[in-house]
Write a structure and sequence with these properties.
2 copies of one chain form a homodimer.
Chain A (H helix, E strand, L loop, with lengths): L4 H21 L6 H12 L3 E2 H7 L4 H13 L3 E5 L7 E5 L1 H13 L1 H7 L5 H18 L1
Antiparallel strand pairs in A: 1-3, 2-3
Helix pairs in contact in A: 2-5, 3-4
Chain B binds a DNA duplex (23 and 23 nucleotides) through helix 1 and helix 4.
Chain lengths: 138, 138
DNA sequence: TATTGTTATACTCTATAACTATA
DNA sequence: TATAGTTATAGAGTATAACAATA
């Protein structure tokens, strides 16, 4: 079906990436989705849970479950928001950053395979086109 | 993180598509992944379960669970392979094809949104780049 | 009234390993 | 020995709705 070529390739690309990411992170006891949380926090720390939900394209329950696990392991901290009593500010800890660096290292083969058959210029194009898809789906 | 732009956009694009697909199919009691099974079978009927696993980028357990459900609803049939006693040939039923047509119809808004901000020529490029990613990840 | 987050619940998908029956 | 499929089990992610606290 012509109309489902992009959806099916999008699916295959994501699922393969997700599966290989989980496989490479298994020895750390971290899932691909937990890694996404850490990635977002490593880039912009001190955001509230709801913001994390948006950026991770996730939902409140899932993010909460992940944060509880990550907090138990001392990788993140959830602190009360100083001005909004409802919100919780999430921060990655120093230990979280250290482990995150190891995870990024362990994922090098996956990153390399992902764009192995795509030249630099095309990678930019791919990213831009995906960004437009995301924008349209919001 | 520069290296995670494509992965994160790939993730957001897939998850949004998947979520919206599930939402639009909910009233039929069919999941996005079950739809993928039907799509594959509607295109090339009479393949064995293992082949379905490969094409759906899935695993034996997941595919089996889906097929059992779809078979209970009379949408597919699993018959013994005439020459290989281990294998099962999966076929979509006439009722399966009818419902599949309705599902495709119900998903029109999702398909449209997906490429809403991408001209025809760019859609071809996107598909080709995704195909290369899939190829590299195998 | 609307929003942030939690709790409870149920279901789907995923991964592993052990098993059978066939090849 | 290897392969197709099943069974059992456990865990992770998802969706919904009801709720408390706060804005």
């Amino acid at each position: 079906m012509e109309a489902y070529k992009i959806p099916m390739n999008l699916r295959a690309a994501y699922l393969s990436m997700h599966r290989q990411t989980n496989a490479h992170l298994a020895r750390f006891g971290v899932t691909a989705d937990q890694f996404v949380c850490l990635l977002i926090l490593a880039e912009e720390d001190g955001i509230i849970q709801q913001e994390l939900v948006k950026r991770a394209t996730s939902d409140p329950n899932t993010i909460r479950a992940m944060l509880v696990l990550l907090e138990k392991r001392g990788l993140v901290v959830r602190a009360p928001h100083p001005r909004d009593g409802r919100a919780r500010i999430v921060t990655i800890t120093e230990e979280g950053r250290q482990i995150f660096a190891e995870l990024v290292s362990a994922l090098e083969p996956v990153r390399n395979r992902l764009t192995a058959q795509i030249p630099e210029a095309d990678a930019k194009t791919l990213n831009e086109l995906l960004r437009r898809v995301v924008e349209a789906m919001e």
